[in-house]
Design goal:
Elements: H1 2-16, E1 29-33, H2 40-48, E2 65-71, H3 74-84, E3 92-95, H4 106-121, E4 132-138, E5 143-147, H5 163-175, E6 180-187, H6 196-204, E7 211-216, H7 226-233, E8 244-246, H8 252-256, H9 261-275, H10 285-325, H11 331-351, H12 365-381, H13 391-402, H14 412-423, H15 427-443, H16 450-457, H17 460-494, H18 501-510, H19 512-531, H20 534-557, H21 563-623, H22 637-662
Parallel strand pairs: 1-5, 1-6, 2-4, 6-7, 7-8
Antiparallel strand pairs: 2-5, 3-4
Protein name: Dynamin-type G domain-containing protein
Pfam families: Dynamin_M, Dynamin_N, GED
Family: Belongs to the TRAFAC class dynamin-like GTPase superfamily. Dynamin/Fzo/YdjA family.
């Protein structure tokens, strides 16, 4: 069943060379996590049986190392001999970034890891998430690890100030994957509760279902804590379900004295037999290797269906994305179809006919309606009818328009001046709303079908031309619409209709006396309107309303005692007239302005956009011999397409490997 691990190794080889962030493949693999100086490197070297990892102070592992141990076959040996022609080699290593090169001196392997790390991560002790893939061919067993940088707290030398955060992010990127087995390296001479590796494991695997702990440095602990160590090794302290295995690796003194790994393994065996006889057969590097192999094989079997499904989904998505990124076979046909689809999607977005309507946000026509409610209506209705119109000003208007004559009950000249002045304050919010709708109409282009938008944005020149066409189309009507709306308001400023029933109703509602009187007499009013002369009846109604308002105001002031009191009555009366007429016209404009914009701008664009695209984008494209530049892709698209093509090739290779597994 070791072939299962080798099949996953092939997938690691495949995906290590492609980097497309939005298409990550969650492979079943063992991820090694530990603090600096926790003995992480020594554990891996003991498992491999060779000293090959970089050593030193600070962060030594600065790139993920995918370490693939392969129990070689006769075919592997033959392939190695074809390259080296050296029959004395019994164990060797190969890097994925160096083709047809075999390393049998493991000191050279260490040097190559250091060189490759400097290439990928730089020489300033920074880190990278680009992995180094190392295959070690051995006669022992097949096993695979992903060795990650040791957890650190403080930057050293020229390291970035956020090195701790960078390392944490890199570790989390690997351990959070559901298919990852977490190998947490813990030192025996520290409290497990403070272990950084266990903290990370618990955060991303709270139940401990995919975590195995390895306890190092058992040979340097105080003998008085032996019972505590037994509890630790028996799983009574660390809650992980895949087991806890203690190991004894080479010390720095052993390394300095060139103590072999075989000697270390023998000493380890003797150490456990002497110090922990009851549990000695459950610990040690050989037990760790066999346990990890069993765990990984079982885990691979469990995760294959999910992995297959993930690969299928990735393949489908990649094929769809590459179809969008495909270079057009016939540019003219491509441009015409794209323009037709853009117009269709734009119009459907405005009219609400999209089949993929969003449930997360407002878009298109719905957003315009929302703007009407939240922007225009609120702002429009918030204008004070008597803004900047004081009682003294009203009095002056009344007196100055009367001249040497006494002011009549309704001074129409003064009323026209005041109404015209107040209606002027409605022009700015009405015209500014035209600009708001125009902007929304332009922005709707960014809300069309995302596939079409992505395709359009591939070609900067074409994208600019489409946007320019829509912009010009909107601009074409902007001035006329504003002129039309302003003219409409100006008409109401110049010509007052004080017999309009809606205005009269405003007057009625503004006076308690009028309102109660109108309610009592409304049947008489309606009957007279049906049977008599409509205009004379309305005139009569206006006079009665004004008369009642006059009496109402007069009553509140205590009667006409003097000339000043009479002026006050006139001021209050015309103040009401102005307010009511203003509100009457505003209510009319509240519907007129949006309807005018919808009719003259929105509908106009919906009808003309298609023709404009053909005339201003497509026809110049086919008539201009140098139009090929319009289909020049933006920078980065070709690289993106190549990356996705590489990943699709990798996914297809992965499918082949998985099928080989299923046939076993």
């Amino acid at each position: 069943m070791e072939s299962l691990i080798q099949a996953i190794n092939k997938l690691q080889d495949v995906f290590a060379v492609v980097k497309v962030k939005e298409h990550s493949i969650d492979l079943p693999q063992i991820v090694v996590v530990g603090s600096q100086s926790s003995g992480k490197s020594s554990v891996l070297e003991s498992l491999v049986g060779k000293s090959f990892l970089p050593r030193g102070t600070g962060i030594v592992t600065r790139a993920p190392l995918i370490l693939q141990m392969v129990k070689y076959t006769n075919d592997d040996m033959k392939s190695m001999l074809d390259i080296t022609d050296n029959k004395n080699i019994t164990e060797w290593a190969c890097f994925s970034h160096i083709e047809n090169t075999v390393f049998h001196d493991f000191d050279e392997v260490r040097e190559e890891i250091e060189k490759r790390t400097d290439v990928l991560a730089g020489e300033n002790k920074g880190i990278t998430d680009t992995p180094i893939v190392l295959k070690v061919y051995t006669s022992s067993y097949t096993l695979t690890f992903v060795d990650l940088p040791g957890i650190t707290k403080l930057p050293v030398g020229n390291q970035p100030a956020d090195i701790e955060e960078q390392i944490q992010q890199l570790i989390v990127k690997h351990v959070r994957q559901p298919n990852a087995i977490i190998l947490a390296v813990v030192t025996a001479n520290t409290d497990p509760a403070t272990s950084e590796s266990l903290k990370i494991a618990k955060q991303w695997d709270p139940e401990g279902a995919r975590t195995i702990a390895v306890v190092t440095k058992l040979d340097i602990i105080d003998k008085g804590t032996k019972s505590d160590i037994v509890d630790l090794l028996c799983g009574k302290i660390i809650p992980v379900k895949l087991g806890i295995i203690g190991v004894v690796n080479r010390s720095q003194k052993d390394i300095d004295q060139n103590k072999t790994l075989d000697e270390t393994l023998q000493n380890e065996k003797e150490f456990f037999r002497t110090n922990y006889p009851e549990i000695c057969k459950m610990h040690g590097n050989k037990v760790l290797a066999n346990t990890l192999q069993d765990i990984l094989i079982k885990h691979i079997k469990i995760t294959i269906p999910t992995l297959y499904k993930n690969l299928e989904d990735t393949k489908t998505k990649l094929e769809s994305e590459l179809k969008t990124l495909k270079t057009p076979d016939c540019e003219k046909t491509f441009v015409l179809e794209l323009l037709n689809d853009i117009n269709k999607s734009y119009c459907e977005t405005v009219t609400g006919d999209r089949k993929d309507a969003s449930d997360e946000m407002l878009m298109g026509g719905a957003k315009i309606v929302n703007v009407i409610q939240d922007n225009f209506t609120k702002k429009f209705m918030a204008v004070n009818p008597l803004y900047n119109l004081s009682d003294k000003q009203i009095e002056n208007y009344l007196l100055n328009t009367s001249g040497i004559k006494k002011s009549s009950l309704v001074n129409h000249k003064a009323l026209e001046i005041m109404v015209s002045k107040q209606l002027e304050y409605l022009i700015e919010p009405a015209l500014s709303f035209v600009d708001v709708v125009r902007e929304e109409m332009f922005n709707i282009l960014d809300s069309i079908d995302q596939k079409l938008l992505n395709e359009l944005q591939r070609f900067p020149e074409l994208n600019n031309n489409v946007r320019s066409t829509l912009d010009n189309l909107l601009e074409m009507k902007l001035k006329n619409i504003k002129k039309s709306i302003k003219s409409h308001i100006k008409t109401h400023q110049k010509f007052l209709n004080t017999t309009n029933p809606n205005y009269l109703l405003q007057l009625v509602n503004s006076s308690i006396e009028c309102s109660s009187s109108f309610i009592n007499s409304k049947n008489t009013y309606y009957n007279n309107l049906r049977t008599g002369d409509c205009y004379s009846e309305i005139d009569k109604m206006e006079r009665e309303i004004v008369s009642k308002m006059y009496k109402d105001i007069l009553s509140s002031l205590g009667g006409l005692n003097d000339y000043k009191n009479e002026i006050n009555v006139q001021v209050r009366l015309h103040k009401q007239f102005t307010r009511c007429y203003f509100e009457f016209i505003r209510n009319t404009l509240r519907d007129f302005v949006p309807n005018r914009i919808n009719h003259k701008l929105v509908n106009f664009v919906l009808k003309k956009f298609d023709k404009k695209l053909k005339a201003e984008v497509f026809m110049p494209f086919i008539n201009n011999s140098s139009s090929g530049g319009r289909l020049a892709e933006k920078e980065g698209v070709a690289d993106e397409r190549n990356q996705k093509e590489e990943l699709l090739i990798a996914v297809n290779k992965a499918f082949k490997s998985l099928k080989e597994i299923q046939m076993q």
